[in-house]
Amino acid sequence: MIETVQSFASGTLLLLGCFFMLTGAVGVLRFPDFYSRMHAAGITDTLATLLIISGLMLTAGWSLALFKLALIMLFIFFTSPTASHALARSAQLSALRLPQIAPEPAPTEMTNSQPVDTSPDAEPEAADSTRV
Amino acid sequence: MRYTLCLFAVLAFIWLSNSGQYTALILAFGLASTVFVILIARRMKVVDGESLPLQLWATLPGYYLWLLRKIIVSNLEVAACVWGGIVSRRTTISPCSERIPVDLSSDLGRVLYANSITLTPGTVAVDIDNNSVLVHALRRSGLDDLKRGEMERRVAALTDDTPVSEL
């Protein structure tokens, strides 16, 4: 009984993890410029990894593999922000400097049903983001 | 000395949990490599409160639990941005960047703060100096959330009242 529940839960977690990996990949393809693509890659680094490793941990049960998976998760959580930061910083130091946009009033809607209107002084590529 | 012992414990734990073979020969190899790594680390002068923030051992897990919740929420938001306009072909993101002031006094606090910002999808810390951090966000709401300063307060509670002690 316990085994069934365990494998079912682990399968669910793995499936969800795969979905978020896919989301990250689609995001990298869809988003318009370098910096926003980095955010999409962030999904693969954090939530997808978390779900997949938790799924694998459930399958592993109490064994040495559990500790190894926990260590992998720990290392990913420390190294992936470092890697993203190195990427962003090197882009910032090279030709891809971030435009320093002055603060503007925030769009209040958080929901996705309404399109967030991009102001004219936002990055021009943002308008192309919907083209696949 | 405290840091050296602690580094030894961490390295020994990593070796033991990864090898899975507890014969005398393998354990001796483990001991040798652990001691070797500690010697190198001491020679590089990286065995100190910055690489092993011992004073955080009790409070850091709580902070990471809070951060984990934050990470999951913002992941879902970014995922919604990714899938949002895929049928209707609408723009769902409004990338923006801004310098956000930071008044954390310790290096450790600033690093932890920038690390947390980058770990949360939707915001990336691009550049950091003594009193501000340049953040790029996928949406304006991510920046506003940071400017409200809850994360900074939590990091400050972790690090500022316990200054990093010297070796």
Quick take:
The complex is a heterodimer of chains A (132) and B (167). Chain A is mainly α and 132 residues long.
Describe the SSE topology:
The complex is a heterodimer of chains A (132) and B (167).
Chain A: H1 2-30, H2 34-60, H3 64-93
Helix pairs in contact in A: 1-2, 2-3
Chain B: H1 2-19, H2 24-43, H3 60-84, E1 96-101, H4 107-119, E2 123-128, E3 132-137, H5 140-148, H6 150-159
Antiparallel strand pairs in B: 1-3, 2-3
Helix pairs in contact in B: 1-2, 4-6
Could you explain the architecture of this structure?
By secondary structure, chain A is an all-alpha fold. Helices cover 65% and strands 0% of the residues of chain A. Chain A has one domain. The longest helix of chain A has 30 residues, at 64-93. Mean pLDDT of chain A is 75; it is low at 101-132. In chain B, helix 1 runs antiparallel to helix 2 (24-43) and helix 4 packs antiparallel against helix 6 (150-159). Chain B has 167 residues and is mainly α. Chain B is elongated and about 65 Å long. Chain B contains 6 helices and 3 strands. Chain B has helices at residues 2-19, 24-43, 60-84, 107-119, 140-148, 150-159; strands at 96-101, 123-128, 132-137. The N and C termini of chain B lie close together (8 Å). Chain B folds into 2 domains: 2-43; 56-159, no CATH class.
